[in-house]
Write a structure and sequence with these properties.
Actin, Chain A, domain 4, disordered C terminus, binds adenosine monophosphate, about 25% strand, 5-stranded mixed beta sheet, alpha+beta, disordered N terminus, 4 domains, Nucleotidyltransferase, domain 5, Substrate Binding Domain Of DNAk, Chain A, domain 1, 6-stranded mixed beta sheet, 15 helices, about 625 residues
């Protein structure tokens, strides 16, 4: 009789059971799900053998929703209820959407004050108001169903990829969507990091790698450093309005030019013909990746027959400047990371548009090395996410691959004078925790308002407000005596929490930052740009604000001293001090930091004598029977 096995206490009864974990590339245009099977990362297909799931959701009625190819087919017929590219709206408010006029949806702001997503946008559809989180959840549900069918069981968890520049609100929204879809999120992973993992760079030589991602509508470049088995995102950059679609548009315009040559009075195209020609343009572009010529034929709705031949050379001529537009974000990312070209160990190509030979050549010329292209550029992110999911689910216990990302913008808090003190600088590696001590501004101050900000500028007004909270119950002390330790912590998923602790009594307050709006990549770029341009102005503004804070605390200290010990002064001495306080107060209404400094100095001088008298008085009090360490010399 065979012996039954009994596991050791604490050990799983089925130690070698493979957990079903997947990687999901939740893309703007298409989404994919992949898993590791027999040690190989593989993209899971639908029942028709298709890997890509178009990220399109169509609401048919209250109870019926379709996702993917079928939804995509109805896009032009039912645009209001067929949502494409919902990723653009994740973690966004209405005011964040710049090109509303060109988007067919009915946007509504979520004003429900009890809702955690108050201020976020919603879309008014036939099935009622839908948030981007709910819409994305439909895509994730479809991928979950696909995966569970293919793998024959319930999923343990998923790694979901997000762009490296996604901010807190966008990451939180992605997590919420997964939760709504019934998925356990093992980790949010940056898309470029996932691509690097797919190429096995985590097992490659240590060094710096560039991920060049040109998709249908966006371009992203990320620079990662691998050292001691740890990936770190050094810098990210990109152009959120540049992708394969722009190449299609160039070809489309070229076709129109050709037809105008033949029939100069041709009317502008209607919507249907425009879509038809754009599809033809896209097919020609993709064909030219492996061929020298593409024949473009179609019939417009007025019966006009188009029949033109586009050569690969003409395609290059038409679109070379689009390819060149990707160079400047690359240069900026290199500069941000402080790197020379010679330090780049490898370049990974991601996104369908990187199949175009002239794109590959441009990247090769720029980095002076051949990029890695042997994996399908559409699948590489999902494949990498699956590998990471497999590790996190515990299927590869011998492997402790650790992936690190960075903060896209600095995080800090407001200090007196409307200034920002940066606690975590931009491009800090995640997870990160930094603490700094602050103190009170006024005597007896028992509460402190913590205002959390994001941005590169010195002034609160030029940064983005993320959250506010209060620390109450600080024991009353003299201004500057309390020690308040404020800790900023950003977890591996990029989510920020801030806590403040008063050190003597140990009272604490904290907040997990879920900003009501996220930031677009463009906004991040704009904030960075404005910080570069405004450095000098910010320096002056900081000097002025700091001078004013010093002046105000001096005035406040002198007023308290006058109240307590004014009797030590003659009337004329008091008048002199009051006059000096007044002239300092007057400078506070100016923008002149030198004047504030000078008046502060003057007041310090005027009160020197008073300070000496107070000290004498204190010493006399001490001599009158008190121990010296009880004497308050203030
Ligand atoms: P993605 O967003 O990564 O799925 O990339 C989609 C873009 O890649 C679209 O603009 C496609 O037209 C483009 N694309 C896909 N296959 C090819 C190909 N063989 N040659 C050129 N572009 C392609």
């Amino acid at each position: 009789m065979a012996l039954l096995q009994i596991s050791e206490p604490g050990m799983s009864a089925a130690p070698h059971q493979h957990k079903l974990a997947v990687g999901i590339d939740l893309g703007t245009t298409n989404s994919l799900v992949a898993t590791v099977r027999s040690g190989m990362s593989t993209v899971l297909q639908d029942e028709h053998g298709r890997s890509l799931l178009p990220s399109v959701v169509r609401y048919i009625n209250d109870n019926e929703v379709i996702v993917g190819h079928q939804a995509q087919a109805k896009q032009s017929e039912d645009p209001i209820n067929t949502i494409v590219s919902v990723k653009r709206f994740m973690g966004r408010g209405i005011k964040d959407i710049a090109d509303k006029a060109h988007i067919p949806y009915r946007f509504v702001s979520n004003n429900a004050s009890e809702s955690p997503s108050q201020g976020m946008l919603q879309l008014d559809t036939r099935a009622g108001l839908k948030s981007p989180v709910e819409i994305s959840a439909e895509i994730l549900k479809a991928l979950k169903v696909r995966a569970e069918k293919a793998l024959g069981g319930e999923l343990t968890g998923a790694v979901i990829t997000v762009p490296a520049y996604f901010d807190d609100a966008q990451r939180q929204a992605t997590k919420d969507a997964a939760r709504l879809a019934g998925l356990h999120v093992l980790r949010l992973l940056n898309e470029p990091t996932a691509a690097a993992v797919a190429y096995g760079l985590d097992n490659a030589a240590e060094g710096v790698y560039v991920i060049y991602d040109l998709g249908g509508g966006t371009f992203d470049v990320s620079i990662l450093r691998l050292s001691k088995g740890v990936f770190e995102v050094l810098a990210t950059n990109g152009d959120s309005a540049l992708g394969g679609d722009d190449f299609d548009h160039r070809i489309y315009c070229w076709i129109l030019d050709q037809t105008r040559e033949q029939t100069p009075n041709k009317q502008p195209l209607n919507e249907e013909d425009t879509r038809l020609l754009l599809t033809k343009a896209r097919q020609a572009k993709e064909w030219l990746t492996d061929n020298d010529e593409a024949q473009i034929t179609c019939k417009l709705s007025d019966g006009y027959a188009i029949d033109v031949v586009l050569s690969a050379d003409t395609l290059v001529e038409l679109t070379q400047n689009l390819v060149n537009k990707t160079l400047s974000p690359m240069r900026k990312a290199m500069r941000d990371a402080g790197l020379e070209l010679s330090e780049i160990k490898g370049v990974v190509m991601v996104g369908g548009a990187t199949r175009m030979p002239h794109v590959r050549h441009a990247v090769q010329d720029f980095f002076e090395q051949e990029p890695l292209t042997n994996l399908d550029p559409d699948k590489v992110v999902a494949l990498g996410a699956a590998i990471q999911a497999n590790v996190l689910a515990g299927n590869r216990s011998d492997d402790d691959l650790l992936l690190l990302d960075v903060t896209p913008l600095s995080l800090g808090l407001e200090t007196m004078g409307g200034l920002v003190e940066k606690i975590i600088p931009r491009n800090s590696t995640l997870p990160v925790a930094r603490a700094q001590d602050f103190t009170t501004f006024k005597d007896g101050q028992t509460a402190m308002s913590i205002h959390v900000l994001q941005g590169e500028r010195d002034l609160v007004s030029a940064c983005r407000s993320l959250a506010r909270f209060e620390l109450r119950g600080i024991p009353p002390m003299a201004a500057g005596a309390a020690r308040i330790r404020v800790t900023f912590q950003v977890d591996a998923d990029g989510l920020l929490s801030v806590s403040a602790r008063e050190e003597t009594k140990g009272i604490e307050a904290s907040i997990t930052v879920k900003p009501s709006y996220g930031l677009s990549e463009d906004q991040i770029t704009a904030m960075l740009k404005s910080s570069f341009g405004a450095a000098e102005a910010d320096k002056q503004a900081r000097a002025l604000a700091e001078a004013k804070v010093d002046a105000m605390s001096l005035i406040s200290a002198i007023n308290i001293a006058l109240e307590q010990d004014g009797h030590l002064l003659s009337e004329s001495e008091k008048d002199e001090i009051n006059a000096s306080v007044k002239s300092l107060e007057q400078t506070l209404n100016t923008e002149d930091s030198h004047a504030v400094h000078a008046a502060t100095e003057a007041l310090n001088e005027t009160t020197e004598n008073f300070a000496a008298k107070r000290m004498d008085a204190s010493v006399s009090r001490a001599l009158a029977g008190k121990k010296i360490d009880e004497v308050d010399l203030k």
